[in-house]
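User: What would this chain look like folded?
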Amino acid sequence: MQSIASHKLKIYNSLSGKKESFSPISKDYIGMYVCGPTVYSNVHLGNLRTFTSFDIIFRYLSHIGYKVRYVRNITDVGHLENDEDHGEDRISKKARIENLEPMEVVQKYTYDFHGTTRKFNLLPPSIEPTATGHIIEQIKLIEKLIKKDIAYEVNGSVYFDVIKYNKLNDYGILSKRKIEDLIHNTRALDGQSDKKNPQDFALWKKAEPKHIMKWESPWSNGFPGWHLECTAMSNKYLGEKFDIHGGGMDLKFPHHECEIAQSNACFGTNAANYWMHANMLTLNGQKMSKSTGNNILPDEIFSSGSPFLSKTFSGSSVKFFMLQAHYRSVLDLSNDALVASEKGFNKIIDAINILECHKNFSKQTDFDIKKWANSCYTALDDDFNTPILIANIFEVVKFINKVNIGKAELSKEGCTELSKLINSFVFDIMGLQKNEISLNQNEKLDKVMNIILELRNDARANKDYSLSDKIRDLLKENGISINDNDKDSSYTID
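Assistant: Here's the prediction, encoded as structure tokens.
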């Protein structure tokens, strides 16, 4: 385990718009809340990128010695889209379409979400609370906001008074928007007059008679608003103020902005010291969208079920692809990009396998392992910069391949140290896994290549250099390099 003191961690804070030195509220302990999925459908790859980003953050903070309480919620209360006053919530709508009870929908897609995270080797959070399990906490929070005269009840629904809040606070502190530009609903909607201001957002909505998911409250039989659940659950499990709040970039406004307003009104804090946001994933240069068909579900990656993909890919190959871009950057997914990522990932695994099997040790090591390790940690300490980490890993892959063909020296001690470090970065921190299928394929490739190399060596022994060169050149054209030495030959995949 690393020493916390040896790391000068910096995190980009969306609140300030800059990188800041990380200083936890409690020494050696970190509270982190990440907005989880609304379980009305299969989790999509854009969501998965967000959860992958925070999985790395969770892993790294734990790796360097912090005890992390990682809370990620499940939204199993159907809320109305965009805070509209009328409409059908997503879970109830899906229940009607699939002829299921709403909680059957919740169970089905929660199970699907957990299955997907396991396929991508994402660690489970420390606590995974559900919105339906915290209705009481949400009601108490609303009562507190009403008592502070920052929320008001109209016809059984309760709204947060954004205009009043903004007189003493900054509604827009996170998104950097001006309140006059923050009118959520410009259309004339039935019931719109219930609100004092069009910017106000719902804390509690009175349910229509046909609405299935509803609970008793002091105001009506209804259901909580979109933004309330996260404030209630983060407060319960992490306190009035905690270290990190994360989610996708699409949640910055209005969801996280409203969370900050609720927390400030109740507790006088911005909830978290550091607000972190993972950027979006596009597909072939366009925004992913189920309605346009420009979309890939995780299971389609494993089953060749997508018209956008030429083959199946392992979870680690896709995860490795995501980690080649910084979590705050927009990342474009394509078949070609996944193919290239898979090749790169396999090169790293091949190098790790070489280290595991290496026996021909030297007295010295032609590589500064300590300097290399420091450069890897420096990358991760700089706002979890996985692209630079991966670039550093490829540097050591080159060295390992040189060792394998006898063009560089590696001591036994150096091999042990290097194996431990590269395993930590690849498997423990990035959470990648060796693909058993690919390992079997590699074994088969080794057998085939040994036959080819034997035939080529026979040609060289018989001075049939034309055939020998032809074999070498054909392999080179297909991405395999032959390395000849005095005793025998070996191969590397380019």
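The chain is about 45% helix and 15% strand. If you want, I can go into more detail on any region.
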